[in-house]
Structure formats: structure tokens, C-alpha cells
Design brief:
Layout: H1 4-11, E1 20-24, E2 35-39, E3 48-51, E4 54-57, H2 59-69, H3 72-84, H4 90-96, H5 106-117, H6 122-135, E5 142-147, E6 150-156, E7 161-166, H7 174-189, E8 193-198, H8 199-204, H9 206-222
Parallel strand pairs: 1-2, 7-8
Antiparallel strand pairs: 3-4, 5-6, 6-7
Helix pairs in contact: 1-2, 4-5, 6-9
Length: 224
């Protein structure tokens, strides 16, 4: 059956892998020119299916296999595509990994999913974000304030500045995306500066948050 990058291409979640890859449930040393053959005698029937009449590893198995042999950006693109196409959403994929728990791709895939789908508690978000704001010279903000008809996470009224955070990187529904646009437009129409960070960025990528906050704070404080 097709597997790895070739399976991803058949599922419509990846096209950058040029090599033809197949899996055989045999220990035979057979080789095929131009084809990468992976031998997995123990691959379960439950993890194999057909798509467009072609035997192929199932979607979850394909993503696990990709995570075992490719770096995070390529795997993340495949997961994003699977989500966008409605094949599987990240929380369901995270649950499905239990069946594959001993396979080599599970650990990096689980780590990636956990980083993208977790939410900081309100106290933890404030505990991690407020020192970053202080580090760039911003005064203590108000929290959980209603501004321009929307509740925001951090508000500096004297600077006309708001910061909002998104807890879920994946699977933003069209309605959620539309509401985010309305929020951003309302703040812009009111002449405010607004920034949006993910919880993942606040937790795992504070240097990135600082690189955005620092010039923003310099501009706002310079004009205050």
C-alpha cells in the first residue's frame, strides 16, 4: 500500500514529497527501482484502507509515519491540511494516537499537537505575559476589560492599546475567524493599536512576543 509521503499526497495533505513510498507487510528483501519500500509485517489491517481504489495507510497512520521521518514544519502542514479538508481535527487526532502509542512518530506528533491545542489558565496567562510587558517598559495593564464591544485580555487605556490571546491555533471555525476580524476592525476603527498572540507564543516563544512588543511599546510610549 502507499505510505508516508505518497499516502499523504493521495489523502490530499501533502505534495512536496517526490519519492514513491510503499509499505509491504512482508520481510521479503524485494526492491523496486524508483520506489522506496518499507517493510512492516506487523502493520494492522485497521490502519490500512483504500482511497480512490488504491490501497493506502489510514489517515492517522499516515500522519504518524510522516512525523517519524520528517521535520515538524512539513508534518504541521499536513495536519493543517487534514484539518482544513475536514478529514480529522487536531483534538480527534490527539485521541487517536493512543492506538499507535508505541510507534516512533507518535511522540513528536503528540508534542506538536499539545503545543498547538493547549490553553493557559487565566492566572497562568497573566503570570507569563505581564512580565514580558513590564520588560519592554509598558505599565501594568487592566485585564479582562470590555473595549469597543469586545472583552479583551490586556488593555492600556492611556495608550489606546489592547492585546488579545488565542488559545487554539488549530481549527478556528469560520464563525470564530469572522468574529476575530470584527474585533480587530472595531479596534482599528477606534484608532487603537491591537496585537494578537497565541497562548503557545506566550508560553513557548516569549522572545518572539518581546520582539513584537518592544517596538510597539517604544512607539506608544514615545507618543504618550
Amino acid at each position: 500500500m502507499l505510505s508516508h509521503g505518497s499516502a499523504a499526497a493521495l489523502w490530499g495533505i501533502g505534495g512536496e514529497w517526490r519519492e514513491i513510498e510503499v509499505t509491504v507487510r512482508s520481510a521479503s528483501p524485494r526492491r523496486r527501482d524508483g520506489v522506496r519500500v518499507r517493510r512492516r509485517p506487523t502493520l494492522a489491517d485497521a490502519h490500512v484502507t483504500e482511497r480512490e481504489g488504491v490501497p493506502v495507510t489510514g489517515l492517522v497512520q499516515t500522519l504518524v509515519d510522516l512525523a517519524a521521518v520528517h521535520k515538524r514544519p512539513a508534518v504541521e502542514r499536513a495536519v493543517n491540511e487534514a484539518d482544513r479538508l475536514g478529514l480529522i481535527d487536531p483534538p480527534a487526532l490527539r485521541r487517536a494516537l493512543e492506538v499507535h502509542r508505541w510507534e516512533p512518530g507518535v511522540r513528536p506528533l503528540r508534542t506538536m499537537l499539545d503545543r498547538r491545542t493547549f490553553r493557559l489558565t487565566r492566572d497562568e496567562l497573566e503570570r507569563r505575559f505581564l512580565p514580558l510587558a513590564e520588560q519592554v517598559g509598558l505599565p501594568l495593564p487592566l485585564t479582562k476589560q470590555w473595549v469597543n464591544g469586545f472583552e479583551v485580555d490586556f488593555h492600556w487605556p492611556d495608550l489606546a492599546f489592547v492585546v488579545e490571546t488565542d488559545g487554539l491555533r488549530y481549527h478556528r471555525t469560520p464563525a470564530e475567524q469572522a468574529r476575530d476580524r470584527l474585533r480587530d476592525q472595531a479596534h482599528t476603527a477606534a484608532g487603537m493599536t491591537h496585537l494578537r498572540f497565541t497562548h503557545e507564543q506566550v508560553y513557548y516563544e516569549p522572545e518572539h512576543v518581546l520582539s513584537v512588543l518592544r517596538p510597539t511599546a517604544r512607539r506608544l510610549l514615545g507618543g504618550a
